[in-house]
Amino acid sequence: MRDKGEFLFTSESVSEGHPDKVADRISDTVLDAFLTADPHARVACETLVTTNRVVLAGETRGPGSVTPEYLMHLTRMAIRDIGYDQAGFSWKHAHIECHLHAQSADIAVGVDSAGNKDEGAGDQGIMFGYASDETDSLMPAPIHYAHLILRTINELRHNGDERVAGLLPDAKSQVTLRYVDGKPVGATSVVVSTQHESGMDQADIKRRIVPIIEATLPEGWMCDEHELYINPTGNFVIGGPDGDCGLTGRKIIVDTYGGAAPHGGGAFSGKDPTKVDRSAAYAARYLAKNVVAAGLASRCTLQLSYAIGVSHPLSVYVDLHGTGTDVEEVKLERVLRDMVNLTPRGIREHLTLNRPIYVPTTAYGHFGRSPDEKLGTFTWEKTDLVPALKSAFGR
Q1: Which terminus of the chain faces fewer neighbouring Cβ atoms within 10 Å, N or C?
Q2: Is the pTM of this model over 0.85?
Q3: CA distances, 285 to each of 72, 336, 379 (Å)
Q4: What angle do CA 388, 276, 9 make, to 5 degrees?
Q5: DSSP label of 362
Q6: Residue 253: which H helix or E strand, with range?
Q7: pLDDT tens digits for 71-88?
Q8: Dihedral, CA atoms, 30, 27, 14, 83, nearest 10 degrees?
Q9: How far apart are CA 78 and CA 64, in angstroms?
């Protein structure tokens, strides 16, 4: 994203009832079940959802108490919690298949610690973290507000609020903001498409959604009415997995920064924290957020890279996009590497990731959320490195 001039930038979000998010939810439900039984279980679960059918596949290593029957039961409960009890996709009647099998011994040898060998990365790859001071959550504003619109609708729906009566689980949003010299100043268009009960009037749906958008955006940011698109294709009755096939990991830009920052390509859901696709991406966000929270820069992009079976990161790269306050990026890379152990084990221990904390991440973004001390969720959103970073740079 540019720092100069005037431009438009757009990000999208999808609700928990979007078919790809249903798949993410089920995959992380499987992961949390294994981590509840054994904090060191290994899981790589992929889920496919379509008309009244769910297929689980992948590799696991964990206690025998986590049976296929139990996982299929948890899958039904996840679908019920999202809110699907429709003819084409119902928690009661969907056919569920479980094809999870044992983790490859070849992968296990490379990842497991043994003797003097520390735990290695579960795969090669590059992971990015990003933070920006344009919102209180230190997230890019377009994805922040795209998520917030859908989260608000979803919370009202789960609470049985009359303001969203008749709206169903599947929904999408898209927010376009105008930037001036790198700072957002207002929305130029907003799109919300939401599944609804048959027979609902489109004008009534718009009357329900518009006040939520207005309350979500900062004062004075609302776009012109002719650039506000609510269910622009008309009817949206058939939705969720009945309307479109869903797969784990197909919404990685929604999961991260809405396109405002690079993405290494790896998905998160269904992967235990030995997989650096997930844990190192969380660590990269954690470091980037603390840099911005410490006032060392207005924007920070951080990249980590790993090789399968190798514990230490091959590289740590920081880009402050010219917004650093007398901070040398090379020094910052060294300070961050010394401050946090960025091996897979070090990340898991520092952020306490070996716990069943992943279902809440599966909708409305993995980043920009408030950490919950009691539940232990979103620990990578803490800003506890700020004092040490300020000290390291004489602040």
Answers
A1: C
A2: yes
A3: 33, 12, 11
A4: 75
A5: G
A6: helix 252-255
A7: 999 999 999 999 999 999
A8: -50
A9: 21
